[in-house]
Amino acid sequence: MLSRLGALLQEAVGAREPSIDLLEAFVEHWKCITHYYIESTDENTPAKKTDIPWRLKQMLDILVYEERQQTGAGEAGPCLEYLLQHKILETLCTLGKAEYPPGMRQQVFQFFSKLLAQVQHPLLHYLNVHRPVQKLLRLGGTVPGSQTEKEEVQFTTVLCSKIQQDPALLTYILEGKKMVSRKKSSREPSTLPREAANIQDKDDPHSKAPDRSSGGARALSPQPPAEMEEPGGGAADSNLITSLMGLCKSKKGRVALKAQENLLLLVSVASQAAATYLVQSSPCCPAVAEHLCQLYQALPTFLDPADIAALEGISWRLPSAPSDEAAFPGKEALAAFLGWFDYCDHLITEAHMVVADALAKAVAEKLFVEILQPHLLHVSEQSVLTSTALLTAMLRQLRSPALLQEAVAFLLGTEPQPAAPDDGPRTLCTHLIGHCDHLSDEISITTLRLFEELLQKPHERIIRSLVLGYLEGRHYVARGSPEPESYEDTVDLEEDPYFTDGFLDSSFQPSAKHPPAPPTNLDGKTAVTEIVNSFLCLVPEEAKTSAFLEETGYDTYVHDAYGLFQECSSRVAPWGWPLGPTPLDPHEPERPFFEGHFLRMLFDRMSRILEQPYSLNLQVTSVLSRLALFPHPLIHEYLLDPYINLAPGCRSLFSVLVRVIGDLMQRIQRVPQFPGKLLLVRKQLMGQVPGEQLDHQTLLQGVVVLEEFCKELAAIAFVKFPPHGPHLHLSPPREGHV
């Protein structure tokens, strides 16, 4: 097209200079556009039905062709000089703002986009280019839901691509309308004689072409951007950021997605200076965080935690909820919020480190601290329930290290030292742990899910603050006493306060006596066979029902535990955990041991497993299993070694389970036909028989959970032993045997 245009021009003018012919044609097209506004009286004819689009296209083709014919690299041709000195882009902005003829704004956006994309000469450095670019951005940003959204987003795409190629352009394009004019100087191309700007008087365009030998080229040299006012003074002004944010909120999915991709391109600039400018002198981070807060506040007051947990697969590229899922009130609003949160997380992941840190802090301050924390601490149970479930959903989607760091600091506080036993609920973390033991079972379950999700995040401070900080020093192990020679030396049932006379006199006895002295390896670790048997034989045969059903065997737990352990091990591998516990000093005096608020809550909940609802028991055991999977020697010892010699007054997970078994032995004597009812309840839970209401149903369901939990712990111990890796050469033992 361009080559044919050049050939036609050369044929028409014979031996005349091709560049001069191009300039004449360029000026003629521009004069025809301006004459339209003088001669036309019809205000209703759309712009696309006039010759304006064709004229603009011819002007663009001439500029591109002229540039290809230029011999000097980086040199502006006569047509481009004419465009710049006569402020054609400024005039087009004014015509677009007037929207006359109708649809002119669309034509202006298209011309700007194609000009900046197709002309290779650096244009955005010129004041007479980046100033109309700013005006055009403001024009688009002030018309939400306008008919030109498609053209606007194409325009921002070109600008963001240019910034990606040359980050120095960021300061030119991001300026708001509050610009302080510099003193007039000879190098500023905006100061032109009035008659030079009036194209109506240019009957002979050749006489008005700039004289490059007398300073014309110098007048067109790239200029630094005009000075900004005080930092923050233009934060509310419309610029590229506010334009992109407006387009991100578009109801048109493709427009919003393209705008989000453009913003992502902008924040990933490689230049340190550009990233700093983006943080300090633009509304980027506050605007992104503010929109997230607006979407959160638009959520319904009541949202079912089950609906929140079930809404998965939401991403910023596909923010609408899947159509195959059941509808519920607030579903679209929830999908929009989670979609934008996923976008924020993706922005922080891909952005320059300076931008990522600033955006993560903005999200933490605006959403977590100012909005979410008051809801989590509210007296209204519904407020606590909804906000906790939403926070869990956010954690499930969170991937960026910077935002994870802020979320951990928000939830666990900034104090590195573990809390003391008598510390009141002064921090958010202790409040949330208290919610796990709430009077409302629903709040307890929802908050336990929050902690389970938190434990799966790759941040060492989580497990250290909740558990490891309290286990260091191994003060739960008795000092100054020799290692026991047999298991009976450590657990004397007649003296153990966890067992009562009713248990010892009961006709129900454990399925197998605890083994004698557990064999140990050369490094002193208890053999895996003894640990596994201790958990498998803990529940007496009279209280077991899984043997009657084929799908509840121990092998399934081993398979699942192996996969989860491998996943957990790879997540914590960079933390450099030791392979074994630090040896005890037998001469060190015993110190008071506190298991921490989190483990104390879990152990207290576990001790009430026979009295709690089935769904709550499932969640408590799920969190404990998640903890037991961590390949740290202290966690392994404290949660999975039944043979540790506990210090006076201390308890471990195994000792809590032993006490629950003692309580069970008393309770089942008061339940007639206990074995039959227990099997019926298990079948009900598995959906094999209709779920009719029975006496002692909570107790019976608790027994089923207890049996399955012991098998799960045995499987975890099997795949973990020794603590630094599973014994892959061992076959999983049959249930009840190793």
What does this structure look like?
This is FHF complex subunit HOOK-interacting protein 2B. Belongs to the FHIP family. It holds the Pfam family RAI16-like. InterPro entries: FHIP (IPR019384), FHIP_C (IPR045669), FHIP_KELAA_motif (IPR045668). With 738 residues, this protein is an all-alpha fold. It is 56% helix and 1% strand. The chain is built from 33 helices and two strands. Helix 7 runs parallel beside helix 12, helix 12 packs antiparallel against helix 13 and helix 26 runs antiparallel to helix 33. The N and C termini lie far apart (82 Å). The C terminus is likely disordered.
Total helix count? 33
Q: Indicate the proportion of strand residues.
A: under 5%
- Total number of beta strands: 2
- If you average the pLDDT, what whole number results? 81
The CA-CA distance between the termini, in Å, is: 82 Å
Oligomerization state of this entry? single chain
Largest sheet: 2 strands, antiparallel
For the largest beta sheet, what order do the strands appear in spatially?
Answer: 1-2
Helix content, binned percent: 55-70%
Class from helix and strand fractions: mainly alpha
Please state the CA-atom Rg, rounded to the nearest Å: 37 Å
Shape category:
elongated
Which regions have little confidence, pLDDT < 50, spanning 5+ residues?
Answer: 11-19, 176-236, 483-517, 723-738
